[in-house]
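Q: Extended synaptotagmin-1, please. Structure only.
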Amino acid sequence: MEPSLGDSSSSSPSPSPVDQPYPPSEPPDQPTTAHAKPEQSSGDQPAGPGAAGEALAVLTSFGRRLLVLVPVYLAGAMGLSVGFVLFGLALYLGWRRVREEKERSLRVARQLLDDEERLTAKTLYMSHRELPAWVSFPDVEKAEWLNKIVAQVWPFLGQYMEKLLAETVAPAVRGSNPHLQTFTFTRVELGEKPLRILGVKVHTGQSKKQILLDLNISYVGDLQIDVEVKKYFCKAGVKGMQLHGVLRVILEPLMGDLPIVGAVSMFFIRRPTLDINWTGMTNLLDIPGLSSLSDTMIMDSIAAFLVLPNRLLVPLVPDLQDVAQLRSPLPRGIIRIHLLAARGLSSKDKYVKGLIEGKSDPYALVRVGTQAFCSRVINEELNPQWGETYEVMVHEVPGQEIEVEVFDKDPDKDDFLGRMKLDVGKVLQAGVMDEWFPLQGGQGQVHLRLEWLSLLPDAEKLEQILQWNRGVSSRPEPPSAAILVVYLDRAQDLPLKKGNKEPNPMVQLSIQDVTQESKAVYSTNCPVWEQAFRFFLQDPQSQELDVQVKDDSRALTLGALTLPLARLLTAPELTLDQWFQLSSSGLNSRLYMKLVMRLLYLDTSEVRFPAMPGIPGAWDLDDSPQTGSSVDVPPRPCHTTPDSSFGTENVLRLHVLEAQDLIAKDRFLGGLVKGKSDPYVKLKLAGRSFHSRVVREDLNPRWNEIFEVIVTSIPGQELEVEVFDKDLDKDDFLGRCKVSLTTVLNSGFLDEWLTLEDVPSGRLHLRLERLTPRPTAAELEEVLQVNSLIQTQKSAELAAALLSVYLERAEDLPLRKGTKPPSPYATLAVGDTSHKTKTVPQTATPVWNESASFLIRKPNTESLELQVRGEGSGTLGSLSLPLSELLVADRLCLDRWFTLINGQGQVLLRAQLGILVSQHSGVEAHSHSYSHSSSSLSELELWSGLPQVTSSAPELRQRLTHSDSPPEAPAGPLGQVKLTVWYHSEERKLVGFIHSCRALRQNGRDPPDPYVSLLLLPDKNRGTKRKTSQKKRTLNPEFNERFEWELPLDEALQRKLDVSVKSSSSFMSRERDLLGKVQLDLAEIDLSQGAAQWYDLMDDKDKGSS
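A: Structure for Extended synaptotagmin-1:
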């Protein structure tokens, strides 16, 4: 048991801590402290150097002094002023001063840690700031046993760090920049001085599912890390470092199974203090001015990794749930800080050498963790009125503090006027605090109003919050209505750079003028970031998230995504957790993100919402003429008046099948050896151009690709088709042909072999079909299923409908700066396709009279996004129109005034949808009952017969059969999966189409995240394995995904198709739960009929189909 502090000053016969050679609890043979080491080693010194050694030392000393004169000689030889020499001398002296201060600080800190008890007893009556935390605070415990464990582990931690830096960090540095390819760690030593824990505080009563520890750590180490870039003969390093701070450790979640704790989270609540002693080339960082800058940059790097809101997470169990939530949890709440005023500040300005006392020019710094704000300066005022508002995210309660420091602005160095600190837990308890707080270290008080804003997971009170915020006077930024947390997980199949080089992708996320960037992941097109970003939102109904995936040089864009935040308002718990398709990127390029929105609600009885005025936009659509006006005002139109050509567009489907007898353009060995060609097709029509894929070394290539383009009936249009041979330099011409568009529009279908012109040989097989939109949704399901089967694997998803939009005008748009009318324009967008109208100058009632058309692939899920913007004034209003509303409208058309989402202004537009039904795909409706088994269900089934070879071309015939059987039977205990299996003899491919699942089994508390895995038995390798995308938290997922296997029909009939429905057990886990499976013997299925059929899922033991 250690002696108490009071005993150390009493007249006890036992030796005092100062006199003891070692602590009583340690064995006598333990090494003594640092102050005894010189005496111990003095007797062991060698006798001394010889004469040769002394001569060498003298010569070395003389050479160093001679080198000092070299800069003087060079300055004179180059004709430079003596000022350069003086400047260099001053720089050197400043560097020496900074180095000596750092070395002295390191020596003092080491001495303090080596003999903490002795110095603690000696400084017992000094200020509490100089004592360890376990002396000053009774709830902080001394953990000397923990320090002994750390000291024992320290050498082995050094071995681990050496391996980590050499095997992980060094390769990453070498790969990040071509100039660092010779980067290496030449020396890694953590030294003999381990990290010490000066005190431990355990926070009890916070949560029964976690343990909170605050560790007061201090590291004054003699570590030495040297690096070298051999290519440039550059050496640098660190020799000695100090790091002091409070590290919070959270053990959560606590479980009823070993190892009891699921994960460990670590972070600094506030920035730790850092002092580094540089060596080598990094000695330059000790130059005055650069020294503080370098330490600040390093602390910024540490803060980006280990200071709130960032944290280090170490999972202790493999199947831990919600790993992303533990790594980047939602904030506990938001504090809105109103910095109102101060009074009674001290006067710091003096004039005439202090004879005349002036006032002060005060400003305030407000900090919460890493979030900092600076107010404006009030000149010559001891009672300033700021009236500014800031919003900060609170991540940890208790622990984080609100700190306000007041300074007097001066030309040289600002004078300190005082500070105040307040634990955020007090704001949480009070809800609202409106008080004058005394300033410590100075005189006066500061007036703060602090409001705790709770986070709401639903949009029920959004209008109330927005209305309240409109009545809040806030500077410099308007008050926020919500926060958005973006968990950026990963990306897939990003495009490569020039030369097929792997990119170094990073992501820029922007909301209005706020942009945040992710880290760069080097040399991969499937990067994993696992980062979180947080944004404040003023109006989530009108704002949007802009995502740009770029190479780390910022010059090359790898993909983009624009997401209206209004989508989150209708999502469950204001959360989207899914893959997002990237535009301006590869065909399969996509980004996985989890977006969580939370509304900011001030829940206190002290707040009274202002009376709700008439909401702009709640328009009276009764267009009765105005009375009592001296001027006749024309009535507002109820409907649009487009011209006669609106809505008359058709869609032309271009099917590029194959070519024959192309000429060979590749030559080898100077033309002596004749090769083949690498052909591709280029099509031009209606201002659009399309490229097919390249088929390597084939004079009879087969592309089988489908393209779609919107066309009008304007006479004289032609489809231009050119065939080229792909080369490294310039592509070779293989022929061209033209097709009159009038011919195709009049006949509706064209299937021909076209002779290529301007070349000796070659012909091209094209199939062209005109699709006329129909104003009825009765055939939509048939069209979607037909498209899923006739769509080729190399083509984009086929359109099921055509959307035509006519935007006529807008009214009552908001004014700029309250008085000036805007110069508005509008953008219409569906998915990746957008249209921008003309700009109408300076009016709140613009008239555009413009139309646009869009190809729609999934009318049930897509939406029309409209934004009205002003030149130089940002967004004036927005509208999101789900196309599902058009599907239930009369003749699939809506023609009326629409209120903009921000509640100010309206637009008059017409939106009409037309379903695209193919007349030449062999679709026939039959009344036919198809029974597969006892559990077969009566419903719409699509089957494809074997193609009939006619004189024109092979044709894929499909039938839609309707059953008159009794109502469908209930699903089995494990649920059902709906799929189509058929053989495409023209392509020599087995095709499987996964439609959906229903009534799946729920194993745990939450619904599963299902996907379907297909395996073509008896092969179990990756070559035959296929997998759908994953759907989040649903028992009835919709997939609608197509898969293909290239194999002959006789081989397909010998195979079995294993269909397994699985679920990911957690967000980051690789484990998969089997929800059910079915095994289909393809020999027992008529592959020429390929019916869409429901199958009962079975356990793994019973694999038979139902």
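A: Brief note, in case it's useful. The chain has a mean pLDDT of 77.
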